[in-house]
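ingest -> fold -> write
write: protein_1
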Amino acid sequence: MSETKSFRKPYNPPIKATWWTKNPFYIRYMVREGTAVCALFVALELILGIFLFLLCDLSAAEATAENTAPYMWWVQSFVGNPIVILINLVCLAATLFHAVTWFALMPKAVRVFMNKNNTDLVPDYVTMGALYAGMAGATVVILVAAFASLP
């Protein structure tokens, strides 16, 4: 190998912070990736609710306002706040957008073969239909569990 030092400087063109606004594909990509902020908010909100639920005194003979005060604050004052309700609705819309774009991407990202003896792929509509069916099934299970717990 040569021991000659190169004085050549590579050209690094300047990249603006708004590079993604020039192409609609990148705009959709960045909006989709931005939905992670909503997912983070919902996750932190649920973690706070679980933490406050664990702070409740569940060993008491009967549930009183003093026993369940932390969790009731979370339900009534935090989750019941109109601003938090609005943020949750925006997060729901962002999550649905994320799910729809992910389901459309899935057949291109994961190659599912019909069987191990040939290279025919499962049609895109089958993969996407299975994903939508799974999401609908999970939604039904969660709604049934939520409404079954109502008095």
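write: protein_2
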Amino acid sequence: MPKLSIIMPLYNEAARLERCLKSVIAQQDQNFELIMVNDASTDQTPQIATRFIRHHSNMSLLTQPSNQGISAARNRGMRAAQGELITFIDGDDWLEPQYTSYFLQKFAQRPLDMVVCGYVREPQRAPALLRSKHFQGYCGREEVLRHITKNSGQVKGYTWNKVYHLALINKYHLQFESDLSLMEDQVFNVQYATHAQHFYIGTQPLYHYWQHNQSATHTYDLESAKSVGLANYRIVKTLLKSKKSQK
């Protein structure tokens, strides 16, 4: 049984998927499984994924019957995951070779519920190395929630720079909310953190985050505004509920 499950939703990622998968197979610690979830791509994405699967037994591909969005794809991957730990990466990004070993070593050193690494925003024409200037090390719930909900820093609400315990996710029936087109990852992180206790925030930049003009963070319309408002409402509701339960 693999120690770490990596869930990768895929939708029309043919242009950059090979780069991502090459970075996955180059990991120094291979104690992981990669579960790709094809969200009804219309390009060569599934063919590229299948080519890699033929040569790597720790890779698999699930197929959605129709395009259902990134949250549904992540949830499908979670249901299939066999690892003790779990993370989520995107098919147009890529990893440093130490990505899996960093997380696995941190979880082996002491009991933790979440571990965070640093990341680099791409493309290279204007790289932005994102490291926390204010905090690095072990922390509690209040500290990590502050970082998750901040609009700046190297933690934020992303899932690909964090690793979680799958048992904790399953215990509290956590999942990504499919009615959100933006900030679904931040909502998930806040919900997870309110049930967790022990965290480690690192600054080592091990994930390359590719931002292109078509990404959700570069487009904003009425539907996006609605999603942001709903996500913020759920975040505040979760935080208030957590504070109330701690009294």
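write: annotation protein_2
The beta strands are 4-10, 32-38, 59-63, 85-88, 94-95, 114-122, 128-130, 137-139, 162-165, 199-210.
The domain at 4-245 is CATH 3.90.550.10 (Spore Coat Polysaccharide Biosynthesis Protein SpsA; Chain A).
pipeline exit 0
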